[in-house]
C-alpha cells in the first residue's frame, strides 16, 4: 500500500493572518488509519494550522489535499464535498445548548444525508452508544459533565462516518481518569472503524498513549522541528527543544 494516496497531505503550506505568516514551509502527510498528532507549546501555531486544514482560513501559500484533491476553492460544491470528508471535535465541544445530544448528533445527518427522520434518529442514537452515551440521548449539554460533552462532540464528528476526524485538544480541561478514558475511546475508533485521527494536543499523557506519529511545531522556527513516533523522538532526537518538550511536563502559557 506504499503507493496509496494519503488521506491528508500538506504541501509547502504557509498560514497566518492578514498576510503575516505564523507558519511556513509545512510539508507532511497523514497515513490512512493512523493517529497523527500536531503538538507544541502555546503560541506555536497549532490552532492556526487546524483552521487551515479544515478550511476555516485560506492558506497564504501552498495546498491542503484530501485523498489527492486540493480543495482550496470557494466553490460551494467543492466546499460541501470537503465537509463530508472529515469530522471535527472542537476544543469546547461546540454543542448547541438548546438541542439534546441526539439532536446535536443528528445535525450533520440532516444537512448532508438523505435519510428519513426515523433513520436519522436511529443513527444518532447508535453514534451516541458507540461513544458510551447510551441512555443520555435526551439530555441537554448543560446536564452532563465535561467528559461527556467531549464524547457527544466526538459522536457528532463521526456521524457521517468520515474517513478523517480532526480532534482539537480533546483532553483539555479533563481530569486524568476522564482523559485516559477518552484516549482509550480514540484508539477504539481508530482500530474498529479505521478512522484516521488528526489530533491537536499538548498533553504528554495522550501523546504517548495514542499517537502513532507526530509533528512538533515551534514558534521560533515558524514550522516543524520534528516528525516521527513520540517515543523515538523523545529518546533519540538531537534537538534539545524536542527532548525538552517530550521528556518533561507539557509547556503551558
TrEMBL record:
Superkingdom as given in the UniProt entry: Bacteria
Domain ABC transporter as annotated: residue spans: 8-246
InterPro entries: AAA+_ATPase (IPR003593), ABC_transporter-like_ATP-bd (IPR003439), ABC_transporter-like_CS (IPR017871), P-loop_NTPase (IPR027417)
Key words of the record: ATP-binding, Nucleotide-binding, Transport
UniProt cross-references to PROSITE patterns, sorted A to Z: ABC_TRANSPORTER_1, ABC_TRANSPORTER_2
GO molecular function, one term: ATP binding
Protein name (record): Polyamine ABC transporter ATP-binding protein
